[in-house]
Automatic annotation (TrEMBL):
Taxonomy of the source species: Bacteria, Pseudomonadati, Spirochaetota, Spirochaetia, Leptospirales
UniProt similarity note: Belongs to the AHA1 family.
Gene3D superfamilies: 3.30.530.20
Transmembrane portions of the chain: none
SUPFAM superfamilies the record matches: Bet v1-like
Organism: Leptospira kanakyensis
InterPro entries: ASHA1/2-like_C, START-like_dom_sf
The protein, known as: Polyketide cyclase
Domain Activator of Hsp90 ATPase homologue 1/2-like C-terminal: 23-155
Length: 162
């Protein structure tokens, strides 16, 4: 399967967020791959990311625990499928670390980043198994939530570059 067919966008099943952010690609990459940094921006406030584990290799763990404002905790466990330094992260909840089937499948996420001088072209695509799951994610506020998280990533990384 070539690169294009793996990443083809299907509007019936996929959601996308794409922006150019005024942050160098290295800082965006670090924000996605260093657990202590992920915890700073990953969940739209007033939600929090209270735990994160990353084993940055194909088949490695991508684990987060989100906490709602009323204190409920929502663990998310999955694994990385593809990692291209400073360019691409692909992860899914369909598989656990070591490519073990999870029994749950909500989405596979493709996060790509491209350096444009001191800015980054950022694209996040969430691929779903069926139109109902896509709609559920849309109704949960994909664009708003992932957009807010990206705003938080930008704000967080700007504190690092000072």
């Amino acid at each position: 399967m070539n690169q294009e067919s793996k990443e083809s966008f299907n509007p019936e099943l996929d959601l996308v967020l794409e922006r150019i952010v005024e942050v160098p690609v290295e800082l965006v990459w670090n924000a996605w791959t260093i657990p202590e940094q992920v915890k700073q921006w990953f969940t739209p406030v007033p939600w929090k990311t209270i735990d994160c584990r990353i084993d940055l290799k194909p088949g490695g763990e991508f684990y987060t625990v989100m906490e709602s404002p009323d204190g409920n905790k929502f663990p998310n466990n999955g694994c990385f499928l593809e990692i291209e330094h400073l360019k691409k992260l692909v992860f899914t909840d369909s598989l656990l670390p070591g490519y073990r089937p999870s029994g749950n499948s909500f989405m596979t996420a493709f996060v790509t980043m491209e350096s444009i001088g001191t800015a980054t072209k950022y694209k996040a695509v969430a691929k779903h198994k069926d139109p109902e799951t896509k709609k559920q994610h849309e109704d949960m506020g994909f664009l708003e939530g992932w957009g807010t998280a990206l705003d938080q990533l930008v704000a967080f990384t700007k504190t690092l570059s000072k």
